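Recap from last week: sequence in, structure out.
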Amino acid sequence: MSTAAPRSAGQDHLWSVDEHLEDILATVRPLEPIELQLLDAQGCVLVDEVTVPLSLPPFDNSSMDGYAVRVADVAGASEEFPAVLEVVGDVAAGQAGLLHVGPGQAARIMTGAPLPPGAEAVVPVEWTDGGLGEGPATGMRASSLAPGGAAGQVQVFRPAEARAHVRARGSDVKSGDRALAAGTVLGPPQIALLAAIGRGTVRVRPRPRVVVLSTGSELVQPDESLGSGQIYDSNSFALTAAARDAGAIAYRVGAVADDAETLRTTVEDQLVRADLMVTTGGVSVGAYDVVKEALSHVGDEDEAGSGIDFRKLAMQPGKPQGFGSIGPDHTPLLALPGNPVSSYVSFELFVRPAIRTLMGLEDVHRPRTRATLSGDRTLTSPKGRRQFLRGSYGDGAVTPVGGAGSHLVAALALADALIVVPEDVESVEPGSEVEVVLLG
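Predicted structure tokens:
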């Protein structure tokens, strides 16, 4: 994987959201393509266009269980005056050596079985007596239980038009058609199509491997007992889940204490399985914010282009950010703030697009729309900062959820959108139109 070197600016430079994102996307490069087995390629992005080598279906076949007939032989058939045909045998799916249906004849046929020569249509078994000599049948007798059902006579109670209940060769896709375009994300339907046209492997960009770790001596694993001054580690769970939602293979590392050497060793150990690393916490200006100290000497710091640039962004929440590459392979790393909302908003704005870029997708951003601000209070925003507020979106309107505090995890759990307040706007009245980032 190749990455370009991130830009650097003066220590006092206040980066805009757009500048920071532009730098990330200019630095991160899509992963190199590999050939994968179909099931291993699920969630990956297709590199090359796939064309259809054979038509689907590859032969005319029946869409019903019933009888293959000639149209002329069942013309005018009714329950009062049924057409009586000689049954010449069975045609089952996958059967080779087809029977021939001649005048006055019919072949019992199963769904998916090839239409035998001479036949022009299929009449469903419910339109016949099923060879039992009685009224309309409800189904066929199993051939193993009643082999005579494939012989004798059948009464047909309704006429059939030519090609009735016949799936035509190539009616799905024809040989030479485009099956899938380059850039397609392979989900279950796409994998089904590849298998149907005989492709056992496919060339894709692999899902990025993302390692997520949180920092802070106060963090405790869920299910453990809390001591004085401790809180549960939620950030690493949130970001690992968000990385998987974005399409990555994500690995969560347990919370690392506020010790630079421990953090440095942990990061170095994790580089072997990372296409992208994400840290949360320890990027502000406190005496125990050790991420800056630790990441200044990770891996091979003599490699040209390595290093993390710690920045201040003109945004709320999420002012402190870090970005760069580390180690001999120049693995991209994004260092996010530690407050839960700041961390999650930063992920959506910066990490998710980086993951989608590694995947080789063209559209890497969440969808955005315009909405009417609902509610009964005016939104306020600090001058010169782009603010992202949690919201609930529906029917062209968005309602703020919770306050502006960057610690409000419960409010974040109720939100499905981010309300964007631009840098030059200090208040937004209810009824105003706002930009909204849709999260789900």
